[in-house]
Design a protein that fits this description.
The protein has 189 residues and is α/β, with parallel strands linked by helices. It has a single domain, classed as Mur-like, catalytic domain (UDP-N-acetylmuramoyl-L-alanine:D-glutamate ligase), CATH 3.40.1190. Strands 2-1-3-4-5-6-7-8 form an eight-stranded mixed beta sheet, sandwiched between helices. A hairpin with a 3-residue loop joins β6 and β7. The relative contact order is 0.16.
Length: 189
């Protein structure tokens, strides 16, 4: 980021979602799909892809964000560890369910985090998956269950991205019904 962008970012203090890891483009697209029907939420949130290589830039972004979120997909703990202590108290970490990462986070930080995946122990899990001219399944989160219909999908590969996007939407104040509705809205792009 250049100096002018840094100043604008610092003054605006947007909610920031940094997406990193395998399939980060697909995750970002699903997050944007969740946020698209809610212009007020989009206006105050910035979603970017980042490979977590420029540690100083990410620290700056997190420090100057009103709500930093690291949305990670298959990123090893050692790669995220430098950011854990730098993340402000209001920040969140979202990652694919992994018992080892959960254990280490509980031991090393008080950072808030959410997990996603097919494992029913994940905070956001998928159940009742049906593939028939698209994919439909149910998202389970804290005892709340909502159906999701992915008309354009041909298999289960998109489900983790949707779960991760649902976690981001929830952090930004959307409920699961709003997340489900966002996937029912046809994508005009």
């Amino acid at each position: 980021m250049n100096k002018i962008s840094n100043i604008i970012f610092s003054l605006r203090k947007p909610k920031l979602i940094i997406v990193s890891g395998s399939n980060s483009r697909a995750v970002k697209e699903n997050i944007q799909q969740v946020l698209k029907p809610y212009p007020a939420t989009i206006k105050e949130a910035l979603v970017i892809e980042n490979n977590l290589e420029n540690i100083e830039e990410i620290k700056f972004l997190m420090k100057n964000s009103s709500l930093p979120v690291l949305a990670l997909n298959d990123v090893p703990f050692e790669k995220i560890k430098p950011f854990i202590n730098e993340m402000p108290n209001q920040g969140f970490l979202i990652f694919k369910f992994n018992e080892e990462i959960i254990k280490r986070l509980k031991e090393e930080t008080s950072l808030s985090f959410l997990s996603f995946g097919f494992d029913e122990r994940a905070d956001f899990s998928a159940s009742d998956i049906n593939i028939n001219g698209g994919v439909n399944f149910k998202i389970n989160y804290k005892g709340n269950i909502v159906p999701i219909w992915l008309e354009k999908s041909k298999g289960e590969e998109q489900i983790p991205f949707v779960l991760e996007a649902a976690a981001v939407g929830t952090i930004l104040g959307l409920n699961l019904v709003e997340v489900s509705q966002a996937f029912k809205t046809p994508d005009k792009n």
